[in-house]
């Protein structure tokens, strides 16, 4: 258990480190929670949390505490959450929904921490970009009104939730392909996902 926990925790940290210094798009990001989820699936709750903590400590040494915190929340916590759902044979809808919620909390945590460190409100910057998008949508739809702040915030939160839902779904697809070969199968996916995987 200790060897696997240390190895997979360092794998998760290495993926984060490589993605930070050599960003290749969303490819590495898909794998961030998978090593921690695998540890939870194989060895249980204590090992899952230990791997998340060890990943954070290793990144704290290599990159500093701020970047390690940005890994642990959400990806370390998401790895534990996904491992717990998969070990308890929860449905895909449940595990994806909880994972998207954890990722959404991670986005807001990241905005809050980065805003505090920079001394600027990044949420307001995002709201300005979403306002531009919503104004463009209103023009395309022929709506002669300016979007209110409430509409802009609902649109921003909806876009964040949608992107997180898609991200966690892709993590599930990658995990089911990997874990079957490792002898740790995931809960049975919906029928349309099985059809997609067969194609």
How would you summarize the topology of this molecule?
Elements: H1 2-21, H2 27-31, H3 34-43, H4 45-63, H5 65-87, H6 92-118, H7 122-141, H8 149-182, H9 191-198
Helix pairs in contact: 1-3, 1-4, 3-4, 3-5, 4-5, 5-6, 6-8, 7-8
Which bin fits the share of residues in helices?
over 70%
Structural class: mainly alpha
Based on DSSP secondary structure assignment, what is the total number of beta strands? 0
CATH class: Mainly Alpha
Structural shape: globular
Secondary structure tally, helices: 9
Strand portion, in percent? under 5%
- How far apart lie the N and C ends? 36 Å
Main sheet makeup: none
Q: Count structural domains.
A: 1
CATH topology: Arp2/3 complex 21 kDa subunit ARPC3
Regarding quaternary structure, what we see is single chain
- SSE order, one letter for each helix or strand: HHHHHHHHH
From the coordinates shown, what is the CATH architecture? Orthogonal Bundle
In round numbers, the mean pLDDT is 90
Radius of gyration: 19 Å
């Amino acid at each position: 258990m200790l060897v696997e926990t240390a190895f997979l925790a360092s794998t998760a940290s290495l993926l984060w480190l490589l993605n930070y210094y050599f960003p290749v798009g969303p490819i590495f990001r898909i794998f961030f929670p998978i090593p921690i989820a695998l540890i939870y699936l194989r060895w249980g709750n204590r090992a899952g949390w230990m791997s998340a903590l060890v990943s954070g400590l290793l990144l704290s040494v290599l990159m500093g505490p701020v970047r390690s915190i940005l890994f642990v929340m959400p990806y370390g916590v998401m790895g534990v959450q996904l491992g717990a759902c998969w070990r308890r044979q929860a449905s895909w809808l449940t595990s994806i929904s909880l994972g998207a919620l954890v990722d959404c909390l991670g986005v807001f945590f990241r905005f809050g921490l980065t805003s505090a460190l920079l001394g600027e409100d990044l949420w307001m910057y995002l709201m300005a970009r979403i306002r531009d998008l919503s104004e463009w949508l209103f023009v395309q739809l022929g709506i002669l009104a300016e979007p209110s702040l409430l509409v802009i915030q609902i649109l921003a939160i909806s876009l964040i939730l949608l992107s997180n839902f898609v991200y966690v779904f892709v993590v599930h697809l990658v995990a089911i392909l990997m874990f079957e070969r490792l002898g740790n199968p995931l809960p049975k996916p919906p029928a349309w996902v099985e059809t997609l995987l067969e194609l």
